[in-house]
Design goal:
single chain; alpha/beta; Glutaredoxin; nine-stranded mixed sheet; eight-stranded mixed sheet; 13 helices; binds flavin-adenine dinucleotide
Length: about 475
Amino acid sequence: MTSEVDILIVGGGPVGMTGALLLAKHGLSVVVAEREAGIYPLPRAAHIDHEAMRIFQTAGVADDVLATTRKAGRYDFLNAAGDVLMRIETGIGDTSSGWPASNMIHQPSIEGILNDAVAASPNAEVRRLWALVNFTATDEGVTAHFDTPEGRQEINAKYLLGCDGANSTTRNLANIENDDLDFNESWLVIDTIVKDRSRLPDCNLQICDPVRPTTCVLMGNGRHRWEFMLLPEDTAEHMQKPETIETLMAPWKVGGAVEIERAAVYQFAAALAKNWRQGRVLLAGDAAHLMPPFAGQGLCSGLRDVDNLAWKLAMIIQHDADEVLLDSYQPEREPHVRAVIDLAIMMGQMVCVSDPEAAAVRDADLMAQREQNGDAHGAMTFPPLLTGTILEGSAQAGMLFPQVGRLDDIMGPGAWLIAKGDLSGGLPIQYISLDDERLKAAQDDIEGWLDAHQAEAVLVRGDKYIFGTGEGEQLATAFGHALGLAH
Ligand SMILES: Cc1cc2nc3c(=O)[nH]c(=O)nc-3n(C[C@H](O)[C@H](O)[C@H](O)COP(=O)(O)OP(=O)(O)OC[C@H]3O[C@@H](n4cnc5c(N)ncnc54)[C@H](O)[C@@H]3O)c2cc1C
């Protein structure tokens, strides 16, 4: 059997499934081919940021996801004596997305929500127990072959998105190199079901104790997590034994307050694929980049990838935009991901210290820095888009457009041009005047924002990054030029 589809997504993890929902919102037909029968049940992401929540909003699942999350107000790095070495007050301050800076999650619960949403979408479907074995790509499209319970099956697609995780078959078949970024530490991750929340910490903790570096984090959907670094003499088998787990958990005195759900040893690593696009084949999520979990950003980064791609693919397939638009994918995303990986590795190197003398030096350094700089507040900041499909040099280009209320829901999944005066044109974007009734609740804020940046108009891309600000007609012309479409 051969299927014809706009987009084939290989891998039904959270990145592939969110990508499917985003693309389906644009009206593209999507098939997700997933090797496994069900959702991956082992412990993984515990945290997502405000931008990830905004992407879930665009995908239509934010309210369901929010119902399973818990806000985190603080992230503390403590030494063995319990002194604060570094504090991030994540609960203080607004974010540009309008969602909390730090949301604690339970990844299998979110994957369940995404699965249900894809099943309900008229434009997307998941084919489970479909494992990619090979593909051929031309300038016109991709033909992929799968092992399935019904034997070998084929899908023809205009584009293939490899969202098939750290050991990506897509990446390997395309012979794309994966650079090892030289971080390797093994940790035991223990997820628990909470019975009595009042006896548990109410903020996220890194215990930088050289005797046993330990993490303790809140999670969504009634879970709480502990992580323990493996020391050179530890084996994964020994760490996963019930008696070892009992000994490690004993100092936390949470017997009866939690019930252990799962424990698994993970190798925390960092890697970056050399090329994220090879013609009509694109990599996203862990297939394109891998990082240790200390910044809680691996999944968030993958969600940003598919958000970056969805509107571009829709412009190309539905509106004949120039395929050159996809050339901006990696240049836009990679510097951001590198900054995130650097932060995650830096945090990991701070925590994963088992030499007491090195730990004492680190503690003194961090305490001196805290004394001098105080605590960090709000969301972690990463670089804006510096190049790509933006009007370089115009105020705020490459930044996330601030969301007031649920503005994104009003505007829909494509690009918008908000202008002080009336404006219309032939681009496949929404032209909307600031005094339009639909903008009523956000009008004053947007007008204030435009004035602050001395702009008559702002053009916001489908992923909510600002293409540019300035005069409406000029913005439309420049955006049309970037898309290869007449204004
Ligand atoms: C302990 C731990 C803690 C973490 N904490 C955080 C955190 O707090 N915040 C955060 O943002 N991230 C965190 N992460 C990272 C996050 O879990 C990953 O980044 C995320 O799961 C990646 O999603 P993905 O969809 O790209 O890949 P995956 O979730 O790995 O999904 C890939 C899918 O592709 C399928 N597949 C593979 N090969 C094939 C094939 N040949 N054919 C068909 N299907 C195939 C797989 O079965 C799988 O379902 C953590 C990770 C770990 C391990």
